[in-house]
## 1
Amino acid sequence: MKPIDTLKNNEARKREVLSAAAASGISVAFGSPIGGVLFSLEQLSYYFPDKTMWQSFVCAMVAAVTLQAIDPFRTGKIVLYQVEYSSGWHGFEMIPFALLGIIGGVYGGLFIKLNMLVAKFRKSNANPLRDFPVLEVLFVSVLTSFINYPNTMMRGQNSELVHSLFSECDKLGTDDIFGLCKVTTAGTISMVSLLLTASGLGFLLTTITFGLQIPAGVILPSLAIGALYGRALGVVVNLSQKHHPTSFIFSACEPDIPCITPGTYAIVGAASALAGVTRMTVSIVVIMFELTGALTYVLPIMIAVMLSKWVGDAFSKRGIYESWIQFNEYPYIDNKDDTPAPDVTVSNIMTLIEEMVCIDAKHDHTVESLRTLLDNTTFRGFPVITSTSPSSNPATSTPFFPPDTSERTSSPITASPSTTTTPPNTLLGYISRTELTFALNLATTITSPATDPNSIPTTPSISRNLPSSTLCLFTHSPQASPLTTLDLRPWMDQTPITLNSESSLQLAANLFQRLGLRYLLFVQRGALKGLLTKKDLWWVLSAKENREGRRGEEGFVAGVGVLREEGGGDGGGDGEEERGLLAAERGAANDGGRIRSNTINTLDSR
């Protein structure tokens, strides 16, 4: 997307393209265009409007049609393991199908926990290959080869293995390269032991390989593992039916007609394993339905997926993707998460105004001074306030750093009887770094010259080639000339979402979850009191889980209100969006910061 400016510079369009790309990927990987759209909706997108769904649908459809026309496998099928079933299922099979769902949930819960342990070890200093990723990949590859080769089921590619496990024996014929259709009892038992052993080895190896610095996913390995133990259970049920055909359990089976299809158990097992790992539901059912084309097996797949998710949620509410997001400390707040926030007010958590960098509308700002502000900070935006202090000299204009409370009370400002007293630090709005940078660049360059050189620009879309000493305004000024000043109000959010500074943290967390906010301003009678970012809230909600080991042996407590390190990089890097909009050094926290730190320590010890 880098060569295309409309995508590179537009985050909304970029997210839409990524959603459509994910849908097309699932479409060609599983031959499931509708499943790809549902995968993008269920797993990837925080906000999924109708426009994005339509674009994802078109992209998935075009990808599937293109692959069908190319026919890479020369079989007329989109994927190698696409199968069709000619027989249905019986009511007594609902019990083994439900058992597969439970096994899938246990597999998913254990897989996530073990994979997170491996990831922590890989990131720790105890890992001798931590700084040698190529050697680590080579070591895991050699280890995988030695472990897999003795087992016949592990020698082939996953796509070939899954196709054989899904297929019926009468359709495999001479393509039974894994020996799945043995007719003798002894051969069947040995084959079941190979299936279960391969499933266990695949489980252990996948927990190690997922997270390596290679393009290796978890969807197809999980399908293969689930198909292995699902096929094993199907073979056991089929063998039991053949040895006890007159049992009341198998009374629904017709004589001299195959009653059990082990391949269907592989399908249900694969769906349960994938649901246990990813915690997806609807998209998995649709993918499996489109993969097999058997509408009659939708109900068993739905039951297995539902039970797998329930059992997996008993281990952890997070799927594998959410667990990795948490492990990498990305500020992701799930809008479906109903975990209660600490029972405190936001004033104990938020970044106080004394620790923030704000833009004071009463000060005289120029294009040069605002660019200096952008160059000297890496914050993603600035609250715009009007203070009760006198206006500063334009030549020495600087960003407003709110004074301490003691200074404000010791230097009161008396208002004339004819004017209305306004509260200190009245909030006027919020301007983001992107909008401010764009407005300044647009005002100081010529990209769309006006036809009349004497015309006054009335819209922010016209460039004006203003000098760097031009006065910038954040409030209405009747005396200001539009030819010699720059009005930044069109670029400022004059109605940002705010809450009272004494509101509960749970209310603030609900706003972040439901509205997808990146920041939230807190006021009291119109005066700005503080700010809370998504990163800060994430620190608070993750305090108990990440208490140990994040900052060395001394540990850390999330959300204490201290500043995140600004770090390297350019002024507008993506890293700062994750760090928040705080403004004080960690060691320079004031008494209010220490009080908030004690509050979180108390919460963390409960």
## 2
Amino acid sequence: MKEKVEQLKFTTIVGVLIQVSILAIYIFLDGVTQTMFIVLFFLIFEASLLFYIISIYERELKKNIADVSDILGEESKDAFIIGGLGLVVYDASYNIVWMSDYFKHIEINRVNEKVTAWLPDTVSLFNGDVDVINVEYDDYIFRIARNSQARLLYFKDITTEYNITKKYSQEAPVMALVHLDNYQEYTQYEEEQRVYFIDSIVKQNLINWANDLGIFIKRLRNDRYLMLMNDEIFTKILRNNFSIIHKIRNEGQNNDLVLSLSMGIARGTSDYTQLEEMTNDLLELAQSRGGDQVALRSAGEEVHYYGGHSESRERRSKARVRVISQTIKELIKNSDKVIIIGHKNCDFDCMGSALGMSRIVSSYKKEVSIVAKTGGLEEKLTQSMLEHQEALGERHHFISEDDALDILTYQTLVIMVDHHSDTISSSPRLIERANRICVIDHHRRKKDFTFQPILSYIESAASSTGELVVELFPYQEKRVNLSALEATIMYTGIIVDTHGFVNRTGSRTFESASQLQRYGADLREANQFLNDSFEEFELRNKVLASSYIHDEFGVVFAPIYDQTEIPRALISQAADEILSVQEAQAVFVISNISDKKVGVSARSKGVINVQKVMEEMGGGGHFNAAALQRDNSSVKELVEELDKVISKYLEEVISDESDIIEWC
């Protein structure tokens, strides 16, 4: 508005000057006459009148604006100041033409400046992207709303409210459970001096770290601690990427010890009972994924994982296996029948585990069925099952998911083998309706269960689910009656999941394999189950020919860009074969696996955690063997996404100074 007044003044001056110039020309040409004096008089009168009218208009304009507080009254004016309420009027060019008394009170005067120059964040308000914004200016926090029709901004001083909320947020409680992985195994038979040395590496470092940060720490047992802190301290820990985990691991490695920490951290609520429940669940998640990592959750949100840069180590003991066996035995005895289910595209390990559990249940004279007619079987497993259909049909009852739903009762025990997620299960509807569910799996847990199992036996350090099932055999009341064919199928599952006893193979794996051989497992027949046809041989060679080294860290990509469909089992085998190349540290094979589905098979030599990479893209698996399947996507799209994810992962690992990768 003031600009318009100034423009009017300028126009008036120019008009008067033009008239004076014309008069001067006439005087110069005709000389001074009486008429000229009369014209000059009227010219001066005109100019004076115009400037008087403009000054009156300007004064009235200022008076009208200043009198807004008078219209509201002095009490309202004081109320606006006390309540921290301010008004700003702007023109069509977003220039401020007036600011209310509140801004005078806090000594802010921005009249004649653009609102967006004063507060750049208001651009989103003027664009209509948001209705309300919070803006920080000097020591104030303002909440601003816009009245577009009146060209008016409403300011509310929320500085006190904001600071209180921030303080409350910083003081919000955070609870953590810390578990010392492998501590019991290292100390239970060691000399006192050696135990003291291990404690100095693990416990003292942990306690010193907590004390330095102001964290309350309390020992619950020899290998477990409770920690309490506020959100401000937690933010510092998060910013440092939980450095204590990397420090403990590296201190152990420097002293030839495989030691690590697992943490479950809960926040987002002041209910300590809820925090305690959350930390227990989160710690279980971290350990079931192999330990050496943090599982973090804010109340009502998804779980986030940090760490996990080392491969899982065997942590289950014979005592734990015996306890699990007894628990499963009681569950079977207290059930009217048992239904065993596997994952979609069932493989040898999944089917072998189901057959093994079926024989355990049969030893207790309980009715047992295996859901194998829903969800699909891998091609080689299908051929093997058809070849031995009669022999397997005599000893096992194979049904569909619909059949299972028909016989399901409140007391029926449903056993999930080789998976723990209903999204990849061959019988998701059965899981949804079942009352009693038991999970036996060797895959790392990705998130919380969407159902409530009465028993969860997940050991990510195991080579296969078949290994876990075989370990249950000796602890049953009667000798499990396992046929040579069933033992061979279970043995084949272990061969596939370990890539011929190369990956994720420990002493327990060989013990299980040895026990299966005592049951009559035929190694020659197991290899025949896995033999490729000439067509499969050609497809595998096609994958090998497409491989290339992606970066200097030994990551290998093998994409098949044409529309060739390659079975999931075959791209897994190809990934295993490429991994045998000396320079390869991790391999990602990407191919169409069906008409509208693309798959990724990932393998690692134990340096790069391919599970974290696949989880980032929606898949999952193990530290050194993981996979992904995606509908309605292309190989090119997955390669581009994988490129970004693997780059981000490598940057994250390399940025951690305690996780520097040294390549041979």
## 3
Amino acid sequence: MLFKSSLKVSLTGIAKIVAYFRQAFFSIGQKTFCFFQFAAIDIGTRIDSELGFEHFGYIGSAAVNLCGKIVHMNRFIRMTSDIIHAGVVFGVSESLDETRGVSEAYAKPERTEKAFECAQKYNFGKYNSLSVTTPDEKINHIMNQWLKKQIDCCIVGKKGVRDNLQIAVALLNYRQDKAKDEILECLRHQFQDGHAVLTWYPYDDTRYSDQPFWIIWAVCELIKETGDYTILQKKIEWQDGGAAAVVEHLKAAADCLIRDKGRNGLSRIYFADWNDALNITTDPEAESVMLSHQFCLAFRELKLLMEKIGETDYAEFLKKEYDTMRKTINEKAWDGEWYMRALSKKENIGSRTSEGSKIYLNAQTWAVLGDVVDEEKLPKLLTAVDSMEHDFGFPLNMPPYEKYSPNVGRMSGMLPGLFENGGVYCHATGFKILMDCKLGRATKAVSTLKKIMPDSEKNPSTQSGAEPYVFTNCYSTHPKYYGKSYWSWTTGTSAWCMNGLYEGIMGVKRRYDGLEISPCFPAEWNRAEMTRHFRNADYHIIIENPQHIESGKPIVSVDGVQIEGNRLPDFADGSRHEVKVVLR
């Protein structure tokens, strides 16, 4: 908001945000300044003429987020008074009558102030259970304030199984009840055969292959966070009718992944996997190496959960499936220096012999996250990953495709260096942060995070065009649009950077038996601290690195008493506990 005046203006605000309404408004006091009615991207403007100002002018642009979350207006008012105290209402509504009613309700200053205080209290309570202080002030500012707001925005703006499950797992760090609701809601859009819709609003059941993986992963994380195994017996509806316990939804997802193997024994890609634009139209039996890595992670995690609830026979079955898939990947998908991205009868994707792009980032990062890569291959894989480093992140694939190929699909038709065709895909770079942490590559993890943070050193907002406080989905590497951002706010980048900082770098991980601390500190960091709510207890954690060791071994004390190992007691006592970690 820019007021064209050098006069002092005192404003208090209250937001009324309701998703999917198709009208938005801005008002001060009882006066409705702008009322938008929009379909698609058409915007009509209504201006109330009785403003109480000498002149009202709407100048410039209005950007309206079609999910009804953001109304932003530039350079729109010139005031005649020296000082104006006004309650500002930004919102969305179903009608102009409702708009006027809301504006009138908040016209009285005392009503607006009270609502503002309630909003402050609500947001403080929502966000204060998770905080961090590192030696990097920018990390502190973005992670403590804007990141949580962005993740909240994502969970409102997205209605897709894959997307919402990723965001929900990040929410487990600070809004556990909301995360639980979102995860269970996603299960309602799973079919009885184990796969799920891409999105339920708008409805899209195009056959993507990766939904079963995200279902297993997210539910396992939910049980770790809550320690509530009764969730597994909760009846949840299927998308195609009927209902079953959550544990049956998990088994259906696992069965689907097993059933969907292709000619080489890897996971079939169908229309696409996580990469919406990798569409191998020339081979319906094409297989995804990335999803095969995720298969391994899912079955490893589900095995642990089944052991916890006493289903040992099923756990052993899952272990055999994991072993088989891991062996198959290493036999069929290793290309000598890195893993291929997909296998197809026409041509393998992401191979040294492939036309166009030769290497894909996700096929390497998930090989580590899924415990697929062995000790012999790991050094070569890391050399390959490090060779992909860019000034402001890691491209999804290299080099970009210069021409369209039906063997690759939509991504190869994009401008080279944009989006999935060789752009720096920040969401995927977030996966790499956790890969680095898993391997103890602390300096690289922090460096990678800082590369894709808003307003980075090598790609400031003046170049990218993105807001200086919001993670974006990708940056262009095309010379004509170098560094430009094309999608911020509703991106999974936010979730994975939260996971990367708190679970990876700070090393505070949820486990079935409690929180585990295994920091991945760069040598230059000497101290950091964080707060974390977990199972009805609050933990204030101080991590010290006096010898400036890269990824040192943690020595942990809780409430002044050194404990054995790095698993914190699961107090669940409604109290605050002091945790000190010294890296040696």
